[in-house]
Amino acid sequence: MTKIITEKIFEIEVTGGKKKERIDIYLANSIENATRTRIQKLIKAEYVTVNGQPTKANYHVEPGDKIKVKIPVTPRPENTEPEAIPLDIIYEDEFLLVINKPPGMVVHPSLGNYTGTLVNALLHYTSELSELNEPGRPGIVHRIDKETSGLLLVAKDEWTHSQLAKQFADHSIDREYWAVCWGTFDKSSGEVIGNIARSKKDRKIFTVTEDEGKHAHTYYEVIEEFEFASLVRLKLKTGRTHQIRVHMSYINHPIFGDPTYGGRKIVYGLNLPKMKSRVENLLKIMNRQALHAKTLGFYHPHKKERVYFDSNLPDDINDLLYELKKTM
Predict the structure, then answer these.
(1) Does the active-site annotation cover 145?
(2) DSSP string, 188-224
């Protein structure tokens, strides 16, 4: 377990004339770079006292209240080391970065993946990374799967991080993915709505459920159709783990090459030797899910304007599309 090496202590006395306000809201507005979510966690852990006593997040502050806040500061895990890994930086300013993550790269260190991650590369590239997250995830505002390529947002300071994280929580981020899916679609566009929860059969994967899980909403639009596959544009209304992969599999159009959600099962031309051989060759080209986070749009908290970024499809998806177009 990581040891706490120090604490930041804030002591605040509520001034006279202050209207009644929940303490979590009051402290989020009073302490620089603090977020309401983090304050609530500190309150639950009894790191916040009012007049010497632990409090609850729904307590309403009153004039004369003496509030003490202890914020634990922990060191970075010893196994998170800077590594000279090249980064494809789409955009950078003094507040944030937009990175085009290659397939096969894990976003942050975790069990079995302590090196070669995006965080290892970021630590080598810059010392300016938000520490709003728990140790081991500096600057990481959101994640995409290891084998999914595409755009990721990284924050350099805690206030920027909190503002960007709020946009993800509010679903006001614009994210567009491109994917190659099995089959051709009956409708050129549509939506998939279905709760997503962990599978009871395998806790490592997710499934669509009726009564359990979290609400999930995905839009799709067919860009181009091939003999037995389609290039599809996908937009997230919500952002659940594995959402696109689970939803597309649910409507029987799994992401081509996806080993977890049916994307490597040959369902076309199984009884035709030539076709089966051709599909097997395509799966060799695409040894992961053919899914790319292509565009990213958000409100820049410092520029006070909406910004958009785009990225090119990676080589393996372009190679797959080239081969699929040969039969058109």
Answers:
(1) yes
(2) SEEEEE-EEEE-SS-TTSEEEESSSSB--EEEEEEEE
- Is the distance from CB of 300 to CB of 307 less than 8 angstroms? yes
pLDDT tops 50 at residue 3: no
Tell me which of 65, 145, 157, 258 is the catalytic residue.
145
Q: Which residues pair with 101 in a beta bridge?
A: 150
Predicted confidence (pLDDT) at residue 19 exceeds the cutoff of 80: no
Instruction: Give Cα 175 to chain centroid, integer Å.
Output: 11
Domain annotation for the chain: domains and CATH numbers: 6-73 (3.10.290.10), 176-293+317-325 (3.30.2350.10)
Sign (positive or negative) of CA dihedral 48, 52, 57, 61? negative
Give the SS3 label for residue 166.
helix
Share of the chain above pLDDT 70, in %: 91
Q: What distance in Å separates the CA atoms of residue 9 and residue 12, rounded to the nearest whole number?
A: 10
- pTM (2 d.p.): 0.75
pLDDT tops 80 at residue 112:
no
Give the model confidence (pLDDT) of 155-187 as tens digits. Answer: 999 899 999 998 988 889 999 999 999 999 999
Q: How far apart are CA 109 and CA 76, in angstroms?
A: 11
Q: What is the mean pLDDT of residues 216-242?
A: 94
User: In whole angstroms, how far apart are CA 64 and each of 23, 43, 165?
Assistant: 13, 19, 33
Neighbours of 299 (CB within 10 A): 16
What is the chain's Cα-based Rg?
23
What's the DSSP call for residue 261? T
Structure tokens at 269: 């031309």
Q: Are 268 and 228 in contact (CB under 8 A)?
A: yes
| Per-residue tokens: 31 | 């302490």
Distance CA 221, CA 275 (A): 27
